[in-house]
């Protein structure tokens, strides 16, 4: 019995101690779910539109349109005034009886757009206006502790404040209604730390403003700073700093020695545990933050510096968006997005055009991204002074401690309230600079969608730091990676350029629940992404990744004189290349008709040590007989194993490759005959027909099956006047040729091996869009393609990066980038550096073509034009399949020509080129021989 009493006493003490410990910390009870993947059903009544006029239930958090309520509208929608639904939410919840003596608040992380909150029939406080901002109310006096409570929230989709509507709801993005971010209760002791604002510098200097409530019985505040190193090998000691309580705002100042600094390349953070202490040193309340030590400086007429190093931001604009959930997100989606942004070798993200979810900023901090955080505003008149200041306070108070945030944005493209500019500094302990995106303001020029010539930096703001907060508009397949290489070469060399932000991250294609979940981009307003709506990788994804790779390879070709050395540059800001991992492989690819796998022989480990900004040499091991391989591949990974990029160089020329791969089969004698207006050439079961007047191929038949390649080669880029056609047989070989008045010509050569060899000599038009030859082939017959060359994505003249040399295969699709299909890589378009290709067609009507000339583009049909292409529509050559020496560029939403790579193709006469351009093709229409 005595032992039992001791045990009971011990348990009582444990329980009492645990209760005391819990009372010291803020306790949180979620009333909603925590994100799009974790929701709670509340009662709901929608006032108008779909499913309106009756009580039902809705998932919280969510956008009510995506739950089947109300009506849709994009910000440009002229009917938006008719779409002003309201939603009434009700939810019953309980509050622990133990919270009776605590301060209890209800917190809303985001409501679109006005929220009127009642607890047990009583107003919780003033109506909150503004969609993207966290707000809350002290509801301690309204609650029934230990019993049931009713929460009612009236949400107005359109605000009662005209300036909120102008700033938020007439913008160029989808509009939603609802409680779209989580809702929770938090309980603290009545003597508590309300919040903290931290300024932690890269040299270890630490300042924190600690805001207190019920502080009069408190004696001191202290903070324990514990390192959270990214690399386990890096350790540090917990530092404790303290200060006596001096008032409702008490400041802690001190220095932490040997701090692990935060950068996007090494995002070390610290757990900061703040404690409010009484006279005896007992903890009254405990408050946690995660911070980073780093120093941000904007040096006038110089640049942006972080920890004393000038940076360039390789950034992207990002909406909080998901096709199914609208603006409702989740921690998993935030982490996914930050990882995807970093996978493109970006180091920065702009919050366009509103503060994001807290967990997105947490992911930026922990994984490493610079951030521009933005007060909402878009071209229209901005927030008025009263509501603007209130929302600004909510944004800064919530986000002030994130080390990733370097700068604040005050609105966008003219939606700036100038009276708020000075308030940023008054609210932000770190005194971060303020941008007006699109304007020349303060120390910055943030001009949007600048022309390439603007990069000459000869405008009227030469001394300002150049940071275009939007550029390379990615409408459909234009912009983003297309044109970026030209721009980035200039921006990289410009010491006053602090980088730039591509528009934008992903297509805002919304699953319309009123249209059987079909995707809607509101015409050409929202398909602007580097990625598709479900983060499908478009061609620009890979182009951006290569162009912005922090390991930069100087261009070179592998020739027989290759010595294994590459000139490279370290374009990291803080990382030595000795911390990265490089792997070199020699690649052997199977030829046409061969189903063997690609062979990869690893070279000896590659090591290289270069400090940031240094140039040097990377050398790979050269195996004996290295010319037998098809390609050399180098893969680089950062210190954490994240792929930087894989670069591949062909080892052989196209002519060498063709000579090795051409089948060596004899099908019998070659027979030449005439039939009406055609010459007929027969080899075995193969029959080729050529027009007597033009020498163009008109029909191919194999074993009685028509292979529908015809009407070629048609020379493109200038008109041709035919001068002479010839056809003759010499021994076992038939020759057919055409000579033009210009001196251009082509010749067919068909021998016993059944191969149709074509040689074209021509002078293209000067300043041409494209130059080469075309054939016809019915698109309806095509099933796919397998080829050796750059792929798997198509290219444009101003987007050659991102496509990699190798063996590729893809099925036919008719995707309109950003508009329909969303199957990537797209089938149709230009494909660079092609060596050979097997075109698949129905009923074995396909064929193989070998390209024995270097740097030839294979054009596969004409991609469909989007319904509203702006300046992204381009012209394609006549015919369906083309072999081209030159191709044209694609434009952006606003510009047709962005830089040198977008210019027309010059050809200043054959005398300057030592003769005509030559194109050599070999067509194999015979069945593939059995594999050896």
UniProtKB/TrEMBL annotation:
This is beta-galactosidase. One of its GO terms (biological process) is lactose catabolic process. It comes from Niabella drilacis (strain DSM 25811 / CCM 8410 / CCUG 62505 / LMG 26954 / E90). InterPro entries: B-gal_small/dom_5, Bact_Beta-galactosidase, Beta-gal/glucu_dom_sf, Gal_mutarotase_sf_dom, Galactose-bd-like_sf, GH, GH-type_carb-bd, Glyco_hydro_2. Its EC number is 3.2.1.23. It comes from the Bacteria. One of its GO terms (cellular component) is beta-galactosidase complex. It holds the Pfam family Glyco_hydro_2_N. Its cofactor is Ca(2+). One of its GO terms (molecular function) is carbohydrate binding. PANTHER family: BETA-GALACTOSIDASE (PTHR46323). Belongs to the glycosyl hydrolase 2 family. It catalyses: Hydrolysis of terminal non-reducing beta-D-galactose residues in beta-D-galactosides.
